[in-house]
Amino acid sequence: MTVTARRDEIQRHITGATAPAAVEAEKALLGIALSNAEALDLIEGLTPAHFYEPLHGRIWGAIQSRYASGSLADTAILDGLFVQDEAYRTKGGLAYLDALVAVAPGASRTEAYAAEIRDTAARRAIMQLANEIADKAAGDEAEEANAAEILAMLEAGASEIAKTADVGDAWMNPGEMIAGAVERARASRGVIEFPLGIPELDRLLGGLHRQEVTVLAARPGVGKTVGAQAYARAIAQNGMAVAFFALEMGPDPMALRLACDLAYDRDLPCHMGVTSNITLSKINAGELNEGQWEQLSQAQRWAARMPLRYDARPGHTMARIEALSRRLFRKAERHGVKPGLIVIDHMGKVRPPKGHRGDLRAEAISVSRDASEMAKRLDVPVLLLCQLNRGVEGRQDKQPNLADLREAGQIEEDARQVIFLHRPEYYLRPPADTESETFDQRLDREAKLEAARNKLHWIVAKNSHGPTGSALTFCDIAASAVREWR
């Protein structure tokens, strides 16, 4: 839902009212812009889509475009641009533009007219959203959504409208900014607010940060979900609410991975890379003893007390992710629990806005920017998981770098921290055709495999809060466990 709702798109079956409009304000603003181009400097965030009269929107867009490029936009030039526009000719062409200029008020009213246009555009969008939600709520059985889904659509639509409904004065005094930042730093006393709980990595990163996106990227199978779940568990165990969107994996695998992690005992023996701990494969094969089944029951009791919530439904848009997260955090705050973290696993599974579907580059840019904006609006860190391209596979050391990010430029720009996961053990598995491997090659591979056993490298390729570098952690991937290296 956007503020682009037109009069012919708005049904009347809820309000019985016509769509609100500010046509006279649109005329006045166009007249001001044509007679005093510098007045455009007073206007922020007003687009052609905000205008009720489509022709006015097109004229505004042409004026904006020429002004942005440093070119003149007077009535004669616009007349040449719109000479083939049927609606323009119907209005009277050049005479219409001249009339707008002739009755243009003073530039001092510029911001007030722009605000009125934005406000009526938002109200039209609200009317359209209300009608769409009413249709959903009263829909037939073939298309009926449940109440929770309809509420999520309502909140997502309202959030989209709010993005462009108003542009307030956001200037901040630098002295006040410094005072606030220093006070918050002093109050924290060096305590990391959103830690993983692994000292080496927390020292390098300083933890995750409010209002910022951290990208966690790796090739499939390396351990993105395991790493993300380690962060989610740690922050939830610190008493903060976590919203985990598992867009790729179903609820059962996510639940069992968490149970394995919570039940993990680092001191149990491991032989030739085979752990004695509970693993997902052992659970699925029914290879657990009674004591291990009881361990899972205990893990379930621990998990039930954590303010960690999963949404494993596919096809969420970023707007819906934001709406669902906002509702979860509001509910948590009512119970005295602070908002903590949003995890999105992974960005390639987020459903893009309608206008970007099918364009992979546009999809990635849209998700990345929306995640960054969501982090600021909800005042929480966002951990955005990302698949790396195949460039990693072609390197001898298999270590990823920023160029391996899909649509690397935009993702790197929006993220304040970029972390790559590198698990050498993943690349040292036996080849599919074991006969193609010589005896010496097998010995060499197995020696490297033993040296790489349970090592997970967190490569910090971008860090706006400190140095880049690498931290080593222990990872028993079969048991979904990440721990401090020792």
From TrEMBL:
Biological process GO annotation list?
Answer: DNA replication, synthesis of primer
SMART domains tied to this protein: AAA
Q: Which reaction does it catalyse?
A: ATP + H2O = ADP + phosphate + H(+)
Q: Which UniProt keywords apply?
A: ATP-binding, DNA replication, DNA-binding, Helicase, Hydrolase, Isomerase, Nucleotide-binding, Primosome
Q: Which InterPro entries match?
A: AAA+_ATPase (IPR003593), DNA_heli_DnaB-like_N_sf (IPR036185), DNA_helicase_DnaB-like_C (IPR007694), DNA_helicase_DnaB-like_N (IPR007693), DNA_helicase_N/primase_C (IPR016136), P-loop_NTPase (IPR027417)
Q: Name one GO cellular component term.
A: cytosol
| Annotated GO MF terms | 5'-3' DNA helicase activity; ATP binding; DNA binding; hydrolase activity
Top EC class of this enzyme: isomerase
Task: Note one Pfam family from the annotation.
Answer: DnaB_C
The catalytic activity of this protein is classed by the Enzyme Commission as: 5.6.2.3
Task: Kindly indicate whether the keyword Hydrolase belongs to this entry.
Answer: yes
| Domain SF4 helicase, residue spans | 187-486
PANTHER family given for it? REPLICATIVE DNA HELICASE (PTHR30153:SF2), REPLICATIVE DNA HELICASE DNAB (PTHR30153)
In the record, the note on similarity to other proteins reads: Belongs to the helicase family. DnaB subfamily.
- Name under which the protein is recorded: DNA 5'-3' helicase
Highest lineage ranks of the organism? Bacteria, Pseudomonadati, Pseudomonadota, Alphaproteobacteria, Caulobacterales
